[in-house]
Design goal:
467 residues; Alpha-D-Glucose-1,6-Bisphosphate, Chain A, domain 3; six-stranded mixed beta sheet; 15 helices; 19 strands
C-alpha cells in the first residue's frame, strides 16, 4: 500500500496496513464504499458475506463494512462471531445469491496490522482486474450512509460439513489426545469444539482474547509454534494442531513435539485423500514446493502441475474439475471438492483422521513416508537490495542462464517465475524477485543440508553481483 493515507492499493487479494498508520475507520469505509459501488453496479441486490478475525476492533470494522455495503442495496450479512476465513468462503460458495465476501483479517501478520481481504462468488480469490476496478472506485470521501444488515451464524453448517469429511467411527475408537493452538486467531474455540464432538480429548491453548496475541505472530511456523510443541510433550498428546490467524493454513506437531515440514505433511494428507477418500486427479503445486510432494503424487498415480508462486495461479487450475489438491510451499492446502480456497481446519481434520485410521504415531507415519519418497532439505533466504539494484536485477534476470551452480550443471533452466535451475537428483534452486518490495527470494532444496546451503549461497551471490 502507498504510504499516503489518501491512496489505497490492494495486494494479492486485499489490503493490509498498520493500525498506527493507515488502518482507520475512514479507510476501511472507503474500501467498502468502492466494493459496494462495483458489486451493486454488476449485481444489484446481491448477497455479500462479511467475516472478521480476533484482531483489535475487527468486529466493529466488519459491521462498518456491512453497513456501507448495505447502503448500496446489497444484502449484507455479517458473522455473529469471529470466524475463520474458510467459513466465510464456504458459506459464500454455497449461496447462489452471493456475489462475494469480505473478511476483516490480516491472517498471519502480527497484531499491529489489520486487513481487508476480498473473495469471489465461489469463495475463491477475486481477479486482479476486479481489484483494479475497486481501486479506481475508491473515493477520498466515502459515503456517510449506512444501511441495515443481518448478523448470521457462519459456523454451524460449515462445521457440520467438515465433520462429514472424516471417519467419525475411527476417531471415536482411538480417542486421540490433541493439542489445539489457534494462535489467538479466528479458529479459537471452533476447531477444538468440533474435535471434541468427534471424540477427541482436546487441550486448547492460546484461547483468551489478547489484543497483542501474547507477543506471537499467528503464523504456524517456528518459533511461533514453540508453545504448541511444548504443550504436546507436557500433556503426552498424540498430536498438536496449529492454525494461522484466519485459519486458512495449518501445521501439525508430532507426539515428540516436532513440527512436521510441509514436504512431509502434504504427501501424508495426499495419501489419505487418495487411499481413504478415493480421490484422484492432478496435484497443483507452486514451483517452490518440495520435490517430495511430486514424488508421492507420482507414486499414488496423480499428475503434478507446477505453477508460478501465488495462490491465484493454483486457483485458476482448480477451475478444472480434475484437481484433487492445490498446495503452496509453506503448506497452504486447497481441496477443491470442498472449497477452491485454502482451509486449515480441513487439513487438521484430515490429519486427525489419518492418525486414527493408521493406529500408528505421527512420527512413525512420517518416517515411513520418508523411507518411500526420500528426505530433502529445504530453505529460503531473502536478499534485500536498494530499489535501483532491485530493478537492475529484474532487467538482467530474463537473460541469466548459468551453466553451473555450486559445481553442478542444471538439467533444466526455466524463467517461468524468476530463474529456476533443476538438477538430476531433484535438487533445485529458484531465484524470484518479490512483486511488492525490493527483495529477491531464493529457495533451494537438495538431499543434504550441505548441498542445499551451497546452492543457496551461490544463488544469493548471483543476485548480489547481478551477473
Amino acid at each position: 500500500m502507498d504510504k499516503r493515507a489518501d491512496i489505497l492499493r490492494f495486494g494479492v487479494d486485499g489490503w493490509h496496513a498498520r493500525f498506527e498508520d493507515a488502518f482507520t475507520d475512514e479507510n476501511v469505509a472507503r474500501i467498502a464504499d468502492a466494493l459496494g459501488l462495483v458489486w451493486a453496479d454488476e449485481h444489484p441486490a446481491a448477497t455479500v458475506y462479511v467475516g472478521y478475525d480476533t484482531r483489535h476492533g475487527a468486529g466493529d470494522h466488519a459491521r462498518l463494512v456491512a453497513g456501507v455495503l448495505s447502503s448500496f442495496g446489497l444484502d449484507a450479512r455479517v458473522s455473529d462471531c469471529a470466524c475463520p476465513t474458510p467459513a466465510v468462503s464456504w458459506t459464500c460458495a454455497r449461496d447462489e445469491r452471493a456475489v462475494g465476501a469480505v473478511v476483516l483479517t490480516a491472517s498471519e501478520l502480527s497484531c499491529e496490522y489489520g486487513g481487508v481481504i476480498v473473495r469471489g462468488a465461489d469463495g475463491g480469490p477475486v481477479s486482479r482486474e476486479f481489484l483494479d476496478r475497486v481501486e479506481q472506485a475508491i473515493s477520498l470521501s466515502p459515503t456517510s450512509e449506512r444501511g441495515a444488515f443481518e448478523e448470521v451464524d457462519l459456523m454451524g453448517a460449515y462445521l457440520d460439513d467438515l465433520g462429514s469429511w472424516v471417519d467419525r467411527g475411527a476417531i471415536e475408537a482411538r480417542r486421540p489426545k490433541i493439542v489445539v493452538d489457534a494462535m489467538y486467531g479466528s479458529g479459537t474455540g471452533h476447531l477444538a469444539r468440533l474435535l471434541s464432538e468427534l471424540g477427541c480429548e482436546v487441550v486448547e491453548i492460546h484461547v483468551e482474547p489478547r489484543d497483542d496475541f501474547g507477543g506471537i505472530h499467528p503464523d504456524p511456523r517456528d518459533p511461533w509454534a514453540d508453545s504448541c510443541e511444548q504443550a504436546v510433550v507436557a500433556h503426552g498428546a498424540d498430536m498438536g494442531l496449529l492454525l494461522d490467524g484466519d485459519a486458512d493454513r495449518a501445521s501439525v506437531v508430532d507426539e515428540r513435539g516436532e513440527l512436521l515440514p510441509a514436504r512431509v505433511l502434504v504427501p501424508m494428507l495426499l495419501g489419505n485423500l487418495v487411499m481413504s477418500h478415493g480421490a484422484h486427479g492432478r496435484v497443483v503445486t507452486t514451483l517452490t514446493c518440495s520435490a517430495c510432494i511430486a514424488r508421492e503424487a507420482e507414486r499414488l498415480g496423480c499428475v503434478t502441475t507446477p505453477v508460478s508462486v501465488g495462490f491465484a495461479r493454483i486457483y485458476r487450475e482448480t477451475l478444472e474439475s480434475d484437481v484433487v489438491m492445490g498446495v503452496e510451499e509453506y503448506g497452504g492446502v486447497c481441496v477443491p471438492s470442498h472449497l477452491r480456497e485454502r482451509d486449515g481446519l480441513l487439513v487438521c481434520l484430515l490429519a486427525v483422521e489419518m492418525l486414527a485410521r493408521s493406529g500408528k504415531s505421527v512420527s512413525v507415519m512420517a518416517s515411513e513416508l520418508e523411507a518411500i519418497v526420500g528426505t530433502m532439505c529445504y530453505a529460503r533466504r531473502d536478499v534485500r537490495l536498494d530499489p535501483a539494484a532491485s530493478q537492475a536485477f529484474r532487467n538482467v534476470l530474463p537473460g541469466l542462464n548459468p551453466g553451473e551452480l555450486a559445481g553442478r550443471a542444471p538439467v533444466e533452466v526455466s524463467h517461468a517465475d524468476g530463474l529456476r535451475l533443476q538438477f538430476e537428483d531433484d535438487s533445485w534452486v529458484l531465484v524470484r524477485p518479490s512483486r511488492t518490495s525490493s527483495v529477491v527470494r531464493v529457495y533451494a532444496e537438495a538431499p543434504t543440508a550441505a548441498l542445499r546451503d551451497a546452492l543457496l549461497g551461490e544463488a544469493c551471490e548471483l543476485v548480489r553481483r547481478g551477473l
